[in-house]
Design brief:
Elements: E1 10-19, H1 20-23, H2 32-40, H3 44-65, E2 74-77, E3 84-90, E4 97-103, E5 106-112, E6 117-123, H4 132-136, H5 142-147, H6 156-178, E7 197-199, E8 205-211, E9 218-225, E10 230-235
Parallel strand pairs: 1-10
Antiparallel strand pairs: 1-5, 2-3, 4-5, 6-9, 7-8, 8-9
Family: Belongs to the P-Pant transferase superfamily. Gsp/Sfp/HetI/AcpT family.
Domain 4'-phosphopantetheinyl transferase: 116-189
Protein name: 4-phosphopantetheinyl transferase
């Protein structure tokens, strides 16, 4: 008699990928804290990205909980210093798990009712610097990322940057889902393989998937922490 096979544990996550230009300006949706941060940003590009990201986050959460975007109240207390620049937590539903990421003209938002999530999006240009390997890669992945080739990725410099960006977004999404962010050195663990549950640096289990990005020169990944086997990505 064969032992009963365990059904995979599936976790649904809603994901929004948008370009900054597609979100459009909606300053009336931002709260006092968000407007204050926005006013302090030096460059126009940074201000556009910040505003669009937080507008998209409010619209996404509004859709998830059925509350007007302007009525949503967030706490952003940093677990390290106590300042208001940490992960957003919805005060009226703190069990809702949120993650937001910006990369140049692109934004990613992830929302889950089930488990902590982390989403990250990055341009390939952002990982094009000499010290990337020593500052971001674990020794187990160094040769694979730097020398490739990896399946489905172009060779040469383009392929290397794509592999770097893929490794980086998987790592940062993982650290966000685990709730530690970049307080954990990214060189301490290899980027998790997509679609497999793994334990990261004794901090907990995660499963990671790559997200298809419809614009060139960008990579994105989504991570969920907990005893899950499959992420059901619900693109919005």
């Amino acid at each position: 008699m064969h032992a009963e096979e365990r059904s995979p544990k599936v976790v649904p996550v809603d994901v929004w990928l948008r370009r900054v230009a597609d979100v459009g300006p909606a300053p009336e949706l931002l709260d006092e804290h968000e407007r204050r941060v926005l006013a302090g940003l030096v460059t126009h590009a940074a201000a556009r990205s910040y505003a669009a990201g937080h507008v998209l986050l409010r619209r996404a959460v509004s859709e998830a909980v059925g509350v007007s975007p302007t009525a949503l109240r967030f706490d952003r207390t940093c677990s390290v210093c106590g300042a208001q620049h940490g992960r957003p937590v919805l005060l009226d539903d703190p069990a809702l798990h949120l993650s937001l990421s910006h990369a140049s003209e692109a934004i990613a938002v992830a929302v889950s009712h089930t488990a902590p999530v982390g989403v990250d999006i990055e341009t390939h240009a952002a990982v094009d610097f000499e010290a990337f390997a020593e500052s971001a890669l674990h020794e187990e992945e160094l040769e694979r990322v730097e020398d490739g080739p990896a399946g489905g990725l172009a060779g040469g410099l383009e392929g290397r940057l794509a592999r770097r960006a893929t490794a980086w977004v998987r790592k940062e999404a993982t650290l966000k889902a685990l709730g530690v962010g970049l307080r954990l050195d990214a060189t301490r663990f290899p980027a998790p393989p997509t679609g497999a549950r793994v334990c990261v640096a004794d901090l907990g289990e995660v499963v990671v998937v790559d997200l298809p990005v419809p614009w060139p020169g960008l990579s994105a990944a989504l991570a969920v922490s907990g005893p899950f086997d499959v992420i059901e990505v619900r693109a919005r």
